[in-house]
Write a structure and sequence with these properties.
The structure is a homodimer.
Chain A: H1 10-23, H2 31-41, H3 48-58, H4 68-88, E1 93-94, E2 97-98, H5 100-103, H6 106-122, H7 132-156, H8 164-189, H9 194-221, H10 224-227, H11 233-236, H12 242-250, H13 253-264, H14 270-284, H15 286-306, H16 313-327
Antiparallel strand pairs in A: 1-2
Helix pairs in contact in A: 1-3, 1-4, 2-6, 3-4, 3-8, 3-16, 4-6, 7-8, 8-9, 9-15, 12-15, 13-14
Protein name (chains A, B): Polyprenyl synthetase family protein
Pfam families (chains A, B): polyprenyl_synt
GO molecular function (chains A, B): transferase activity
């Protein structure tokens, strides 16, 4: 590995990316169609996915400015899924702001979302023609899997017994494959060898599964002072996270009865339910189980990361730091 | 022009297309996501758009079997728009069958529609790499315009005065550009010169506008015995068609008052309203105006068609016959 002379910082990448995302012309007429796109793209967020694309590119090449549009396409696609998921989940808020279907209406959120998906494809067409077919194939595969994952997630609400395997497969599709694609995409744009790009995909998928398990854990075990939203939200909503799925699988006798009662209960004090279910989790050792599973995915992903052969050592360290920060986040 | 030795028939094209559409594997898991796609694709319809792609291809080349998948992509895209439009319009029926959001629910129709759009793109990726970027650009442009047209159409419901120009522009985007793209697409796949492909696009757009004006006319003036659905549906719903827009623009004095009263009336006998508004149209000469506008677009389109330089005379005649049949349809 050779240290390059022009190391980039995460802040610089994020700033350039944010400027590009905010300055991009998604369309103007009719205003009613395009305003919700500007709105959702202005709500911020960590921009992890396009940042991963830029950072994967920067492992192999320095001129990341040349791929800001295709990198932003990944964020536009992600926000399209958020706009439609929020309708399906009847969510009132997104990043602390009113969701599109609440601010306008469901029809607007459907149609603006549709055109966002078209625009995401439009942001890919200037990729060099020799790379375009393969990248489109990978993007289509990823986009279909994200939809499949969302359908599995909705199906789970109607199913009594979701297995650990079903759950991991659902989060792999719904959230992890897009992280994998984002990284692979950046590597392919930088002309990295296909095996390298594939390793980055696997790294992204595995770390993505770990991140979702981390989300599940934080929802119950975060420090309320640092967390930013209500601890225990998943417990209140009976959301079938890794923690609840394992608890339902492993609870025996009196604990099993208590857990089932709390799940079935209609009128309840929220704090009381969160405290009671957390106590049940603690008695079964759910936290340790979930942490072990999460660490398993993190270990696998970092082993894959360290098997890469990248020319840009500063880029290698930067992406490692970014992902490790996410591994250790407390909110 | 040279007569080729292997003339195709519309029936043969349609049969091969239908077999391809029904046999295509859109996806299988989760079943809940893909079943609505098989359902809507099995409802039939005239398959005009992919048929136009095949026929435009057949103007220049004989092996239309090689482009069945990309041609079918146009139909998949069209059915995606129908699935989402039906949610937005709260339509109970599509081609005489229950709509997807009624048979399942709105969430299913949103998500299955999303994955249909992704699959339509997936059906384009095997186009030869040197043609792919241009075709994707044209498809993206068309897809965005179709969404823009739908938004304009929804906006019109809230607007008092829609002008003729606004209306023609809306139907151009919502329905005509996809016919134009379907033809241009077939020509480009057959390596036709770009000017030829552009002429076919213009032909398709103009004939598409004519077809929509024909729809508007038939809804009021069709022979009920041949029409298949209720004559006067647009009048009952106060739908802002070319006829109503021109009538509102041109009605004077007593006729104007009568028209405004019928539009504002809440409880009314449907037959009586249809008869009364039709009488108003007749007194202003709306039918003749709409027919003249329609013929203007048909004339423009056939002039463009006859300026083509195609090698396959039998294909030329076939596409001419198909479109003239549509021009003269009575339902």
């Amino acid at each position: 590995m050779n240290q390059t002379t022009n190391p980039v910082s995460v802040d610089k990448l994020l700033q350039d990316l944010e400027n590009h995302i905010q300055g991009f012309q998604y369309g103007d007429s009719p205003f009613e169609l395009y305003e919700p796109i500007s709105y959702i793209m202005s709500l911020g967020g960590k921009r992890i996915r396009p940042l991963l694309t830029l950072m994967a590119y920067a492992l192999y090449k320095d001129d990341y400015e040349s791929i800001l549009t295709p990198a932003a396409a990944v964020e536009v696609f992600h926000n399209f899924t958020l706009m439609h998921d929020d309708i399906m989940d009847d969510a009132p808020l997104r990043r602390g702001k009113v969701t599109v279907h609440e601010k306008w209406n469901a029809n607007t959120a459907i149609l603006s979302g549709d055109v966002m998906l078209v625009k995401a494809y439009g942001m890919l067409v200037d990729i060099s023609p020799e790379k375009l077919p393969e990248i489109l194939r990978l993007f289509n595969q990823t986009a279909a899997e994200v939809c499949e994952g969302q359908q599995h997630d909705m199906n789970f609400e109607q199913v009594e017994n979701v297995t650990e395997e079903d759950y991991i497969d659902m989060i792999r599709q719904k959230t992890a494959v897009l992280l994998g694609f984002a990284l692979q995409f950046g590597a392919l744009l930088a002309d990295a060898p296909k095996e390298e790009a594939q390793k980055l995909y696997d790294f992204g998928v595995n770390i993505g599964i770990g991140f979702q398990l981390k989300d599940d854990l934080l929802d119950v075990y975060a420090d309320q002072a640092k967390f930013g939203k209500q601890v225990g939200g998943d417990i209140i909503a009976n959301k079938k996270t890794f923690l609840l799925i394992k608890a339902k699988e492993l609870a025996q006798g009196e604990l099993k009865t208590q857990l089932e009662e709390w799940i079935a209960k209609d009128g309840f004090d929220k704090q009381e339910k969160v405290k009671a279910v957390t106590t049940i989790y603690d008695q079964i050792g759910i936290k340790e189980l979930a942490e072990a599973k999460m660490q398993e995915y993190f270990k696998k992903s970092f082993d894959q990361y360290h098997s890469l052969h990248v020319p840009n050592l500063s880029g290698f360290k930067l992406l490692l730091e970014l992902t490790q920060d996410l591994v250790h986040r407390e909110k």
